[in-house]
Recover the amino acids of this structure.
């Protein structure tokens, strides 16, 4: 008993550029970041959720469990995160816009098949509401410790797109953007939220549906006899074919050629790996997003992302009150890393201060991109709470001394 | 160019087209042949029976998907000219779950090895059976990890040698039909690669079945399992099947334990009907829709008195404030302490 | 139609020149015989890996292992008693290499 029009609606979720019925009425709402992310997924026509509960990401799954059935979507709680990740890959190939959510321990389990998603070039979204680790760590408290795992956590070499929201509103907005990027570049996209943002309740504005721009899936226009799954367009992204539509393609996690058939030598590997990397890097300008505050006259730059950028912002104001010309560079797209932007900023300031809730992850990228043009100072935090403003201020003062 | 996309639809079993090649070539990727399987390996036979069953049962090729994990058996998806997905080790079933639930009109078949499905993927197998997902799982049991060179598997009979059990396997093997049936599979069968006619019939039944089907195919692995244990070649194993197999339809899967020697119980052990996950989900969806329309009726002036509208769907409540969204610039300088100060917004958590 | 391989083959391993592949054995059916089901066994020798299953399990012992090798170096089967074949198709289903198949005799109303 498939309910009438079900398959058609699932297909529309990926093929349509317009927002489908199911999105909340436009207006202002009070949501925590997780709920906002769930609503963002619905607004982006996300219609397939495979879940495994984990604090502090559970609210995303819970809201989707309640909301998806009435939106013409499918929700299933799987037996573990390995299954959840694979399940959304399968759903995406069957035509759904699919997502899952997790936190540290589950993120580790999803790594295996994040790689499969990258290799098969499957558009899906994975939200990681970060908590502090390692291992079970601090289940209910904040961390930003999976930033490098997001980049390198699955084996092999690859490029990844990761976005960091700093408010519930941005959980909503960036969830939509994550889906759009995943469709545009046919790759899994990570929404790297954190416990602070996920559990913080704020006003979230849901815009009218017609104001939301969605990128539909790049379905092939070739006839079934003329189609191979990995013949790329000019921007190196190959169009896709939905399961069950007569294309009868083969795809594999093995290194493969344009036909999707295994191509197991150095040359085949070279071709595929560079295309997968370059389809992101060549299009980096379309992916990059950041926010700059008071950087025009800044002598010191606070570089932060996610929840730490909220502390950084008030530290900036405090510093200004004390006569230090501080500015803020908030990374929204953390991966691919905005090398050029950071290098440019490094040439203009006396120091870049990087507060993050880990023992120094993104600061390494900042150091690399700055190439010695300025002093780069890490402000580490082991997790479980946010930086205090005086502590960060002190680092700024020391750096300028 | 895709070499020859075969014509759509079905061709009856007995009437073969002209002498323009092997009848299975239409459903096989001949541009990938010869396959990688060793001489005397039963995997080709399993694929051959699969192809015949597809040809014979009239299922639309375009609506059939094959998903495999990793292993010798895992290569099966790559040789069938269907929508085919060669996934990661052990994960064929969850991938197939996504395909199936996003498009329940597809028939999704998993073909994978015993190690793939019952060791690394064992958790997925039991849960898919428990949920009664509408999937067909064909598990080729060759008593060993083939692809990686003959290591001990959860199906290796006690005492048998493998590269990682050089002095004999110390563990008791899985009885896969029992595992599947006790987890809730609605069609459970076992055949050997000699029982080709029965295998084809069971495959056909499974393609038409609504619910979770698990078919174990006992297959010779002459290169690794048999050679190391001095059991001869593939033909020798086939002869053992001929003498040792015992057909018993409806047998209790509990009795289907397998040893290195002795009887091999085969047959269709379980065939029952039970609501599938998709059925239950769509029932819930339509109940929710009904409840919603009832509530709408009641909300009208002069509507009916509150009924026992069971399932409540979360809804946006309260006054939507159609304020323009703050532009990026507006948000500059906003600190955490200022969050949502005095916003007259309304909570909309799900009930 | 692309059979995928072995177009390059022109010579058997034992030096016997071989006709264009795939090559079929096709024996005319004796129509005067009893009206039993009769099949024509067709063989694509290059695909065979010589497992011997078709020979061993044919209920009518229609097939025997031939003296010849194919390009892979395997002895492939040969139809020794075509008139005995009852079109049971066991060989077709059993063959792991998709190397052998049946065509119903025209006398049986086949194509
Ligand atoms: C995560 C992971 N672990 C290990 C492997 C290596 N591996 C590949 S195939 C295989 C075993 C396959 O055995 P089985 O499923 O019984 O299939 P068979 O090859 O016997 O048909 C293993 C362990 C892998 N590919 N991925
Ligand atoms: S190793 Fe064993 S299972 Fe794998 S192809 Fe060879 S005979 Fe078959
Ligand atoms: S069809 Fe049956 S009788 Fe004829 S050759 Fe094949 S196995 Fe023998
Ligand atoms: S069954 Fe196939 S591979 Fe084996 S001997 Fe016969 S024709 Fe050759």
């Amino acid at each position: 008993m498939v309910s009438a029009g079900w398959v058609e609606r699932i297909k529309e979720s990926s093929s349509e550029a317009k927002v489908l019925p199911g999105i909340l009425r436009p207006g202002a709402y009070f949501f925590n970041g997780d709920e906002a992310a769930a609503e963002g997924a619905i607004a982006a026509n996300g219609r397939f959720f495979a879940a495994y509960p984990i604090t502090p990401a559970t609210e995303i799954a819970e809201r989707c469990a309640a909301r998806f059935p009435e939106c013409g979507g499918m929700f299933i709680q799987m037996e573990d995160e390995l299954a959840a990740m694979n399940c959304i890959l399968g759903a995406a190939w069957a035509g759904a816009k699919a997502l899952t959510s997790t936190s540290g321990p589950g993120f580790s389990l999803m790594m295996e098949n994040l790689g499969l998603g990258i290799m098969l070039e499957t558009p899906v979204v994975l939200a990681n509401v970060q908590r502090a680790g390692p291992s079970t760590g601090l289940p209910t408290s904040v961390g930003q410790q999976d930033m490098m795992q997001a980049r390198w956590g699955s084996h092999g070499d690859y490029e990844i797109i990761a976005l960091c929201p700093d408010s519930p509103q941005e959980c909503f907005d960036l969830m939509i953007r994550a889906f759009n990027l995943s469709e545009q570049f046919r790759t899994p996209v990570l929404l790297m939220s954190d416990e602070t943002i996920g559990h913080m309740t704020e006003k979230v504005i849901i815009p009218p549906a017609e104001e939301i721009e969605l990128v539909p899936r790049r379905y092939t226009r070739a006839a079934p006899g003329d189609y191979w799954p990995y013949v790329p367009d000019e921007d190196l992204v190959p169009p896709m074919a939905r399961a069950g539509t007569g294309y009868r393609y083969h795809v594999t996690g093995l290194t493969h050629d344009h036909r999707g058939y295994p191509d197991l030598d150095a040359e085949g590997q070279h071709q595929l790996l560079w295309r997968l990397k370059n389809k992101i890097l060549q299009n980096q300008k379309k992916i990059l997003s950041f926010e700059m505050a008071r950087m025009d006259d800044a002598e010191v730059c606070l570089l932060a992302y996610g929840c730490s950028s909220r502390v950084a912002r008030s530290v900036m104001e405090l510093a200004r009150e004390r006569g230090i010309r501080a500015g803020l560079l908030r990374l929204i797209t953390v991966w691919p890393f905005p090398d050029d932007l950071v290098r440019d900023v490094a040439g203009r300031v006396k120091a870049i201060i990087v507060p993050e809730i880990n023992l120094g992850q993104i600061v390494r990228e900042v150091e690399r991109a700055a190439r010695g043009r300025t002093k780069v100072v890490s402000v580490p935090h082991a997790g479980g709470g946010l930086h205090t403003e005086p502590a960060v201020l002190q680092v700024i003062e020391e750096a300028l001394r | 160019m895709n070499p020859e996309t075969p014509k759509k639809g079905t061709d009856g079993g007995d009437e073969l087209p002209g002498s323009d090649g092997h009848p299975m070539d239409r459903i096989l990727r001949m541009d990938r042949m010869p396959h990688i399987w060793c001489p005397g390996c039963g995997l080709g036979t399993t694929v051959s029976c699969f192809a015949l069953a597809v040809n014979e049962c009239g299922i639309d090729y375009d609506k059939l998907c094959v998903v495999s994990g990793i292993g010798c058996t895992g290569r099966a998806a790559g040789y069938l000219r269907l929508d085919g997905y060669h996934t990661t080790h052990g994960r064929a079933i969850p991938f197939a779950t996504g395909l199936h639930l996003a498009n329940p009109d597809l028939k999704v078949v998993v073909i994978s090895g015993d190690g793939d499905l019952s060791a690394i993927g064992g958790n997925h197998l039991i849960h898919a059976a428990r949920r009664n997902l509408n999937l067909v799982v064909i598990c080729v049991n060759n008593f060993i990890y083939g692809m990686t060179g003959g290591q001990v598997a959860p199906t290796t009979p006690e005492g048998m040698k493998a590269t990682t059990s050089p002095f004999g396997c110390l563990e008791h093997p899985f009885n896969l039909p029992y595992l599947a049936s006790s987890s809730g599979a609605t069609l459970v069968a076992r055949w050997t690669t000699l029982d080709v006619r029965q295998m084809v019939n069971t495959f056909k039944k499974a393609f038409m079945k609504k619910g979770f089907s698990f078919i174990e195919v006992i297959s010779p692995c002459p290169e690794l399992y048999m050679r190391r244990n001095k059991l001869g070649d593939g033909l020798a194993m086939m002869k053992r099947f001929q003498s040792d197999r015992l057909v018993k339809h409806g047998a209790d899967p509990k009795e289907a334990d397998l040893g290195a020697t002795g009887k091999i119980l085969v047959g269709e052990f379980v065939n029952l009907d039970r609501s599938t996950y998709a059925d239950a989900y769509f029932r819930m969806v339509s109940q929710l829709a009904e409840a919603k329309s009832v509530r709408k009726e009641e909300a009208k002036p002069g509507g009916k008195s509150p009924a026992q509208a069971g399932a409540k769907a979360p809804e946006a409540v309260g006054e939507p404030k159609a304020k323009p969204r703050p532009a990026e610039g507006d948000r500059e300088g906003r600190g955490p302490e200022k969050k949502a100060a005095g916003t007259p917004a309304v909570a909309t958590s799900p009930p | 139609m692309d059979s995928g391989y072995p177009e390059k083959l022109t010579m058997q391993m034992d030096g016997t020149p071989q006709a264009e592949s795939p090559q079929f054995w096709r024996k005319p059916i004796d129509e005067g015989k009893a009206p039993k089901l009769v099949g024509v066994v067709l063989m694509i020798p290059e695909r065979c890996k010589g497992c011997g299953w078709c020979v061993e399990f044919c209920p009518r012992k229609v097939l025997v292992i031939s003296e010849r090798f194919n390009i892979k170096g395997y002895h492939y089967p040969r139809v020794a008693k075509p008139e005995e074949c009852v079109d049971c198709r066991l060989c077709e289903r059993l063959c792991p290499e998709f190397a052998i198949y049946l065509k119903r005799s025209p006398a049986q109303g086949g194509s």
Remarks:
- Chain A has a mean pLDDT of 97.
- The two ends of chain A are 72 Å apart (CA to CA).
- The pocket of iron/sulfur cluster (ligand 4) is lined by residues C 48-54, 76-77, 94-97, 99-100 (CB under 6 Å).
- Chain A is about 40% helix and 20% strand.
